[in-house]
Each structure stands twice: as C-alpha cells, then as structure tokens.
Write a structure and sequence with these properties.
The complex is a heterodimer of chains A (287) and B (271). Chain A is mainly alpha-helical. Chain A is built from 13 helices and no strands. With 271 residues, chain B is an all-alpha fold. Chain B has a single domain (64-268), classed as MetI-like (MetI-like fold), CATH 1.10.3720. Classes of the chains: A mainly alpha (287), B mainly alpha (271).
C-alpha cells in the first residue's frame, strides 16, 4: 500500500493538509517550550548568564523537592482511588441493558464537561465545617465538633478523584467491551469462581484500558491546580501552584521555567513508563 | 455442594462490585446535585440542607455585572478558539488519519501532546515568547493559547470518525467519476460531521473552562469567567457563585443532551 503515490490514492489526502496546524504548533507550542527551556538554563532573571543554577537550586532545596514529592504522591493516590471506584462502574456497564448503559455513560460524562471550578466548589460545600458530611455526622451524634475535612490531603484526594473519574472510567469501559464474554463463561464452567475469573481473566485482559486510564488520570491529577489550591488551601503546596507563585507573584521567570521543565519531565517520565507497560500488556493480553 | 458454594461466591463478587459501582456513581453525581440544591437557598451561607428555598441568589446573579462581563469574554474567546481549532484540526486529521507513515504518527503525537503536558507550564512558556517578540497579551493571545490546548479534541474525534469511514465508498465514488472535492463534500463530510461536531463541542467546553492558559495570556482588562469564580471562591464563599454554578450545570446538562442526540456523544467516547 505504501508503494502507490499518495496523489493517486483516492482514499487518502496529502500530508499538505496538516501543514497549517503543524506550522501553528511550531510557532505557538514548540517554540514557546524551547524558549522556556532556554531561559531555565540561565542563572539570572535577565537571562544573560548561562548556567545550571536554577536546576541546582531546585534539586538541592528540600522545600522544592518536598513539593515535587507530594505532587507525585498525590497523583498516585488519586489514580488508585479512581481505579478502585472506576473499575466496578465499567464492569456494571457491561452487565446492564442499553438504557442503563446510556444513563451510566451520561453520569460519568457530565462531570468531565462541567466546569472544574463548579465541581471543586461543590466539594467545598460538601467538606466544609457546615458541610453535608459534618452536618450529617453531627445530627447522628457521631461527632460533637466538626471534623476538619477541607484543607486536608484526604479532601484533596477525594475531590480530585471525583473530578478525574471520567478519564479513568471511559477507557475501562472501552477495554472491557472488547473482552470476549465467552472467556468469562469458559472460566466459570471450568470451575474457577467469580473472584478468580475476575483477577485471572478479566483484569489482565483489560490492562490496556487500565493503563490508558491511569496515564490520563495521573497526568490530570497532578496538573489540576484549581482543585489543588481551592480544596488544599494555603498550607498544601503542589507543583502547579509553586510554578505559578514563582512566575506571577515573585516574577522569578528562570526559576519558574526550571520548575516547569522539571514538572514536564516528571509528567513525561510517568507517561512513558505507563506507555511501555501498555505495550507489554498488549503483548500479554492481546492474543 | 460445590454448586452452592459457587453460587455464594458468585453472589459475593457481584454484590461487592455492584455496591462499589453504585457508591462511585453517587460520588460522581452528588457534588453537582448538592450545588444545585444549595443554589436555591434562602439563607446567606452554604449550609446543607438549606434553611429554606428561594430564587434570591439567581436574582442577585442578574445584577452581577462583573460576572456578566467575564462570561461574555469567556464565550467570545471559546467561540474563536473552537472555530480556529475546527479549521486547523479537521484539515490535519484528514492528512494524518489514513497515513501510516512515520511523519503522520509523529504529527499525531505532537498534536495530542497538549492533552498530557501541564497547561500551566505551556501558559508561562507562551507568555515568555509573546513578551520576547513584543506581542502584548490581549484577547488575540488568549485565542491562540486556547486553540493549542483545544485542537487535540477536534483532531482526535475527527480521526476517529475518519477511521470508521469505508474506503470502498471513496473508491466507488471515484470510479463513478466524481472529483475528490465532490466526493469530500458529498460523501466524506456528511459521514464525519458528527465526529467533528463532537470534537468542536468538547473543545468549546474546555476553552470556556480553561484557567491555566488564561491566567498567563489575558490582559488586565479581560476578565475570564472561571478565573473570576476561582478568585471569588478564594476570597469569600459567596452564594451567588452557587447560583452561577447552578446555571452552568443546567446549561451543561442541556448541551450534553442536545449533543447526545446530534452526535451520539456517549458511544463516540467509549469506542
């Protein structure tokens, strides 16, 4: 198929049609990122003295490393919660009729399209001192004084998990839909129980979906700075807000650029680990 | 004996999975419902359940000119960014969708990369470049920045729609003497239109909701709705924001319902 000249092949279009967007990306996406990298290699805010000072500063500063560590940990926690809650949704989706399927999809989809500020605001209402959880627990007599839920790690994780849940659930639904239902029956009729069938057959075969979902959820959770800052409050600092403070409030552009590059590399590293796992899992489950 | 044991085992499995799934679905939907209910409160706080119900905060919203101004800016930028994304994205999708060459795959990765890279880092980078070349931040820089982060949705949905197109349709059209342009207008475009509309819709919603790019690329005079709401929430917990959230939630539900009819949005995102 590669031998036929593209212009003769009526089913494909020339690569020239991609030129406008490629040019647009070159000027407004690639060039800015290169400029960001260039500036991060300077020791002074004016960008005159070359050096690795910004990176050294970040990598030897316990505070900066702590921010990076807590951001990566936050992503892992949110991804784990999304996986545990999202997988049963995808499982249920495959077992119900088309009417319920549409309802489930729309429930999953709605938060994805609702404004992030609105969704985060909802969690402030739920987790606050007079919020729904504290009010319920107090009226039941379980607690006397309101629990502190807002501005805690727990609050940030649960809010982010809800906000990012669609990114996990949609690939899982796709992956589970591709599994031959006969495999499930075969496993059961051969004497394996439901739990065993799930962990030995369904879960391994859905790994490509699990990995796709984890990649999207992780990348979204660590960059979601509206939810991080509103639910986390001032005491908890994560990479996006750290970057924004350095760039906007302190006007320290070279250091902000170095933070950005380190953050970009961290995201890329996680994505490529997941992508490699995805390739391996396709070889494993793709028979 | 073993049959009974297996049934119990199967029931325990189905029960656990169903219960977790229902809890998860409740967690997903509850926040929107809570905000909707609170927005109709007659009180001054965000207490739940509200002490009484009224439309006072929606009436308040009617006079909140700052929010109107921000909403208008967000709408204009989102419309321009969506238009530009469709023009650039559909053309690029046509070029890369049926090509298996390395350059097509590389371009595909490039066009998708704004989806995973931190938008805040991109916003800062774009601001640095614009200030280097002496282009002041303005609605124009906003539209450019938003287009970069929104165009992946158009490309992805259009590529997916093109992938489902039967090549034989195009071949028969060519055999019957139709020109490429005629085939495109009469065969290809009608078949991929729902995909383009779905992509444009998601691009529009994500532009309207964008904070990280807008934070860096807007000028002082251009207030954007999600930033205005965010800053209001950082300061005080205003019930007007609950009413505005109510409006946004209802508008989103209505738009999704329309899009489900027009494009089969839900099937599109799970295949």
């Amino acid at each position: 198929m590669g031998a036929a000249p593209a212009s003769r092949d009526v089913t494909s279009y020339g690569m020239g049609l991609a030129a406008p967007l490629a040019l647009f990306f070159l000027i407004f996406f690639v060039a800015p990122l290169l400029q960001l990298f260039w500036l991060s290699l300077h020791n002074d805010t004016a960008g005159l003295h070359w050096g690795l000072g910004q990176y050294l500063h970040f990598l030897t500063d316990p505070f900066s490393l702590g921010v990076l560590g807590s951001t990566l940990l936050l992503g892992a926690e949110v991804t784990a919660v999304c996986l545990v809650l999202g997988f049963p949704i995808a499982w249920l989706y495959q077992r119900v009729g088309p009417k319920l399927q549409t309802i489930i999809i729309l429930i999953v989809l709605l938060p994805l399209l609702t404004s992030v500020v609105v969704r985060t605001f909802a969690w402030i209402v739920i987790l606050g001192r007079q919020g729904i959880i504290n009010a319920t627990l107090q009226s039941l007599g379980v607690i006397d004084t309101p629990l502190k839920l807002l501005y805690t790690q727990f609050g940030v994780v649960i809010a982010l998990a809800q906000v990012q849940m669609p990114l996990m659930t949609l690939p899982l639904i796709t992956a589970l839909g591709r599994i031959d239902p006969n495999l499930d029956d075969a496993s059961c009729s051969l004497g394996a129980g439901s739990w065993r069938t799930f962990f030995r057959i369904v879960l391994p075969l859905s790994l490509p979906g699990v990995i796709a979902g984890c990649t999207l959820t992780y990348a979204a959770a660590i960059t979601a700075f509206i939810t991080q800052s509103l639910v986390g409050g001032g005491q908890m600092l994560f990479m996006p807000m750290y970057l924004y403070q350095q760039a906007s409030t302190l006007q320290n552009w070279p250091f902000a650029a170095a933070i950005s590059i380190i953050f970009l590399l961290a995201v890329l590293a996680v994505v490529s680990v997941f992508t490699t796992l995805g390739r391996l899992s396709r070889g494993y489950g793709g028979a | 004996m073993s049959g009974r044991k297996r049934t119990l085992e199967a029931i325990s499995f189905e029960l656990v999975m169903t219960v977790i799934a229902v809890i998860a679905l409740v967690i997903i939907i509850a926040p929107s419902l809570v905000v909707l209910i609170v927005s109709f409160t007659s009180g001054f706080s965000l207490r739940f359940p509200p002490p009484g119900y009224s439309l006072r905060w929606y009436a308040e919203l009617w006079n909140a000119w700052q929010l109107h101004f921000a909403a208008k800016n967000s709408l204009i930028v989102a419309l321009w960014a969506t238009g530009l994304s469709v023009a650039l994205g559909v053309a690029a999708a046509l070029a890369i969708s049926r090509s298996r060459t390395l350059s097509a795959r590389l371009l595909d990765s490039l066009f998708m990369s704004p989806l995973v890279l931190p938008a805040l880092a991109f916003g800062l980078a774009a601001l640095m470049l614009f200030s280097l070349v002496g282009l002041p931040v303005s609605p124009l820089t906003l539209v450019i920045g938003h287009t970069v982060v929104c165009v992946p949705y158009v490309v992805r949905n259009t590529v997916a729609a093109l992938a489902q197109l039967e090549p034989t349709l195009l071949e028969s059209s060519a055999v019957l003497g139709a020109s490429r342009l005629y085939t495109f207008r009469r065969i290809v475009l009608p078949l991929i239109r729902p995909g383009i509309i779905a992509g444009a819709f998601i691009a529009f919603m994500s532009s309207f909701d964008n904070v990280p790019v807008s934070l860096f690329l807007r000028d002082a005079a251009t207030d954007m709705l999600p930033i205005r709401m965010w800053q209001d929430l950082e300061g005080k917990l205003d019930v007007t924001i609950a009413a505005l959230s109510g409006v946004l939630i209802i508008a989103t539900v209505a738009l999704v319902a329309v899009m489900e009819r027009v494009t089969g949005l839900s099937r599109r995102l799970t295949s």
